[in-house]
Amino acid sequence: MHIIAFLIRRAFQAVIVMFVISLIGFSIQDNLGDPLRELVGQSVSEEDRDVLRDQLGLNDPFLVQYGRFLGRAVQGDLGTSYFFKRPALDVIMDKFPATFELVLGAVVIFLGLSIPGGIYCAINRDKWLAKTIMTASIIGISIPVFLTAILLVWLFGVELGWLPAFGRGETYRLPWGWETGFLTWDGLAHLILPSIALSSIMLPLFIRLIRAEMMEAMGTDYVRFARAKGLSTPRVRYVHAFRNTLLPVVTVGGLMIGTLIAYTILTETVFQWPGMGFLFLEAVNRVDTPLIIAYIIVVGLIFVVVNTIVDFVYTLINPMVKLPGAKA
Amino acid sequence: MITWQGFLKRFLSDPVAIGAGIVLLFLIVMAVLAPWIAPQNPYDLLQLDIMDSELPPSWRDGGDERYWLGTDAQGRGVFSTIMYGTGISLIIGIGAVIVQGILGVTLGLWAGYKGGWVDSFLMRLADIQMSLSTLMIAIIALALFQAAFDANVYADYAIFMLIIIIGIAEWPKFARTVRSSVLGEKNKEYVDAARVIGLPARKVMWVHILPNTLTPVLVISTIQVAEAIMTEAALSFLGLGMPTDKPSLGSLIRSGFEFIFSGSWWITLYPALVLVALVLALNLLGDWLRDVLNPKLRRGDD
Amino acid sequence: MALLEVRDLRVAFPRGKKGEVEALRGVDLTLEKGQRLGVVGESGAGKSMLAFAILNLIAEPGRVTQGSVTFDGENLLTMSERQIRRIRGNRISMIFQDPMVTLNPVLSIGTQMIETLKAHRRITDREAHKLCVDKLKLVAIPSAESRMDAYPHELSGGLRQRVVIAIALLTDPELIIADEPTTALDVTIQAEIMSLILTLCRENNVALILITHDLGVVAEVTERLMIMYAGKCVETGRTRDIIDRPKHPYAVGLLKALPQNSTRGAKLYQIPGSMPPITNLPSGCPYHPRCERATDECRAAMPPLEHGVACFHPMHETPAEETEATT
């Protein structure tokens, strides 16, 4: 594919996603609860309200208001949380590290296990371990994330009491304000169960995907040719076959970002993990509109950014996508 | 196409398919007959007695014979709530797939037949929607609806909202499947012939192309019901789906989750087992159907 | 001692629950140093199977069930994987049929060449690179130096096959097995690639097994010929002799079917029927349903390979008249 087409597609997608999200965000900000009531309370008279409405620009035409909303949003002003009485974006960003570290933990687990697992199952198709993994993976796909999470909480948190099952534990504040759980034993211990839960559907899915792609690659002519050249088995498997399975894996990985974000909400709810997803559900229950909007916009942004990174990685590992001007 | 006899023969020779079929049939019958065979009507507040709350299953210490699988915090029998809850999960799952199917087949036919910018626009849209994920779209949509409407009003319409939102969010799966079979069929002779004799495009699409794309649609439908049930369960678990007084399997798990730490594990465990059994049975059947009906995999052994 | 000796080579694939079906049903061949052998037959005759079986590269779930492949005095089929890897791509190279799928799409040409050298030689990257460029020049690839960084999709089919040939030549092998090396290419460059292979083999005294379904090519390139039908060798001998005086009715038919052997304007000859699938072979000689000379004897038993032909009723002295007419 040509790089220009690629960029256009990328930009098109980003614009549509952000446009829809901003439109949703904008159109609900006034309709969910009364912003005036939240600002000034009930005691103000109807005339004063109208004056205030005018001053706040709530009587302006739709497009003017939307333009203003966009202008503010671009500057990072997504309104003030009714509950926290702080800028919504700040409240969200405070919770970002918790979610980020949870996702990182899950990604490490499912990539760390699915790649060797998938390759093993592809190469040793008929061994009992491979068959067991494949059976377990179809069962794994059928167990919803929140059930896995509950099971882990109940088994390791309540019955056995081996691992903490709630919250992040002890965190350490890095100089730039990032609260990390990676630097304390307690923080790491708290990360284990939630990360396993979050990776529990991705893991079987990726094992099956990598196995299927690897098996296909092992049957190709170029892998046979690589063997005919007298290359060592590891080189044939990991350089020739596995390099080719990476392309579909990265593509599917890109398609899973939205699912992964949705699963963080479920996982954080079960483990009361103080991240963005947990915050979002609290905001929904409290009808904290600015916070809801801020969450949606931040998630949309993360989605667009990660998707771009995934596409970029794809171009890096796929020689058929080349930058223009590069020597052909 | 495979004949019915052949289909039945394949089914009867595969123990996994038979097992999945029996489990699914059992759960469906149980759900359909719930109003007549359930020991208790969990919707009828008069039948509930708060004194009966959190009773363990009948075979354990303190269990009550009337409640085989114990009771929940409101004194509802877990067995009865599961019977009714399975029904609600199934209605939402099947309803959502019908919405998906109608939307997806129509848009997929249109995209595949028209081609050009219609096709690229719809497919780009499908890409974006698929990578945003159904669950995420549904969470946001339901969160907004819940915030916008009064909780009681919401509870009345929850079942329709779930069907429609999961239906709309998942249309790309059907659309893509149909589109690719349309592209395969479009240039075949019978379609050309229909066009040549002057049939209008809409008629060619619906009468001539559609029937030939139904096999893959059937194959993904089963898996899609499983997915829709999982999505609904996740939404209900988050408190964005069915309310606890009209529970689906997901909301039963949600209401039980709080009590897992006080030792009342049965309120969560049994609905969870039924949910997993239901989804697993559908997934296994879906996989089996794909293997049997997919001509690509079938080639060479008939 | 012959360079390569194949004795009673059999390859089978599993079929059904326990059964097996033979794709290669006992093949013998002998190849001297620098000799060029053509293996001819319709698709499905087991030609490619023979090529892969020689290097013990039969794809699962197929397996070599019997026989020996002796290369320079050693049996390749009983060697350990480590030992045979020293031969594959080093002393015996292969050229595959379709260059579009032979090269790995995600690795550069340079990587795929250098790794071959490094698998067999202790050599620095710089030396390896230089040697690879030399070979690319040898197979007449323009601007060879810059092709090292190119990826397969950036080259045409003809160029890719040249790269594959260059890879085959990298380690100065004693034997090259070329499995229909021009079938997948444009007609216009088939001759070029074929003469390139012939020249390189001649100049470097490399033995060649050329697998093809094209008797015309074989006549130009090879000294010896083997005709395969349904997993067996039905006729073998000097290429010239078989072309001039084919003995097996199948060989006669193949020659008759060559366009240059039919009268201008006349309808092209075709052997009636088609080769039976290996899963459903007739009794006796597998060719008998298509053979004009078949008798009850042919239907009852498989004729042994004697004097270079496996037929109860070979065409001895009398070559087909049509063939003679146009020579």
From TrEMBL, chain B:
The chain crosses the membrane at residues 16-38, 88-113, 125-148, 154-171, 264-285. InterPro entries: BP-dependent_transpt_permease, MetI-like, MetI-like_sf, OppC_N. Residues 86-286 form the ABC transmembrane type-1 domain. It is a multi-pass membrane protein. Pfam families: BPD_transp_1, OppC_N. GO terms for biological process: transmembrane transport. This is ABC transporter permease. It comes from the Bacteria.
UniProtKB/TrEMBL annotation, chain C:
Pfam families: ABC_tran, oligo_HPY. It is a peripheral membrane protein. It comes from the Bacteria. Keywords: ATP-binding, Cell membrane, Membrane, Nucleotide-binding, Transport. SUPFAM superfamilies: P-loop containing nucleoside triphosphate hydrolases. It is found in: Cell inner membrane. GO terms for biological process: peptide transport; transmembrane transport. InterPro entries: AAA+_ATPase (IPR003593), ABC_Ni/Peptide_Import (IPR050388), ABC_transporter-like_ATP-bd (IPR003439), Oligopep_ABC_C (IPR013563), P-loop_NTPase (IPR027417). One of its GO terms (molecular function) is ATP hydrolysis activity. Its main location: membrane. GO terms for cellular component: plasma membrane. Residues 4-255 form the ABC transporter domain. PROSITE patterns: ABC_TRANSPORTER_2. NCBIfam families: oligo_HPY. Belongs to the ABC transporter superfamily. This is Methionine ABC transporter ATP-binding protein. The lineage of its organism: Bacteria, Pseudomonadati, Pseudomonadota, Alphaproteobacteria, Rhodobacterales.
